Structure formats: C-alpha cells, structure tokens
Automatic annotation (TrEMBL):
Species name: Cellvibrio polysaccharolyticus
Identification of the protein by name: DUF3019 domain-containing protein
Pfam families cross-referenced by the UniProt entry: DUF3019 (PF11456)
InterPro entries: DUF3019
Amino acid sequence: MKRAWVETGIQTVFPVALSPVAIRSWCRLAWFVICFKRAWLLGLASAFLSSVVHAQTALTLWPTTCVTLQEGRQCHAQVQIQWQLQQAEAVCLYLDEQLLQCWAEASRGEWQWSFADTRTRLLSLRRMLPDGVPAETLATGKVEVSWVQDTHKKRLWRRF
C-alpha cells in the first residue's frame, strides 16, 4: 500500500493510512500535552518561590501553584512551607482562619502540608499572644489552583 502524507500548515504530521479515529486520538493527545506543558511551565515560572517579607519575616511556599485537569476538580500537592523571623517568638500558621500548626519561641520553622482543594487558599503566619490569641499577621502566602482544560469550551470532537 502506497502511503501519502497529509500536510497541515508547514509540518507533515501523519500518514493518510491512519483511520479518522486514530487521527482524532492523536490530535487530542497532542492538544492535551501542549496545554499541560504550557500550564506546568506557567506554574513553574510563577511558582518558583513565593516569598512575602515583612520586617525581616519571610514565609516561603513551594509549589505555589497546583494544576488540575479541569476546573472544579480537586487539586492535590505536597506544599513545603518554611518561615524565618528576626527574633524567636510564638507563632502559628493559619489556612484562612483555620489553625494548622504552632511553634513556641522559634525563629524559624518548616512544615509540610498535604494540599487538596478546588480553589486558591491563603496561608498566614501570625504572632501569638501569651494567652494563645492570634495577634498580628507577620507574613502571608497563597497556593493557587489552575486547570488545563476549560469546562465552558465546546468540545471539538465527540463520540456518538
């Protein structure tokens, strides 16, 4: 069987001998790989290290972006959290208003967080008063959730 090559634009992509189903599958895979790579690179570039410095206080999160396949799906990541203060004091790490972890009289700390959510979440390092009530926020950081596929986009290929 003689194979002819189909040209799309400038590049030669695949032989005509492939079935339409195989071509559609190949196109879907190529589209997914391109979109996922783009989202991953954007996440890597913007999420290399998110540091917020407030009067010699640093809170570092890595990664700062969690990428899921579609909007609304839960994203999972192991987030490494490090913080450093100019002097030792009692501090706590909060997720929005939820207490995650506290340290007594420490000038630095590390914590690993199993992130699993569908939306962007804000973390804050807060100074604690002697009675255990949070005082001022020393530093903040966030883990953003992004997705590869747009759920509102009309699907180009459908199976019957």
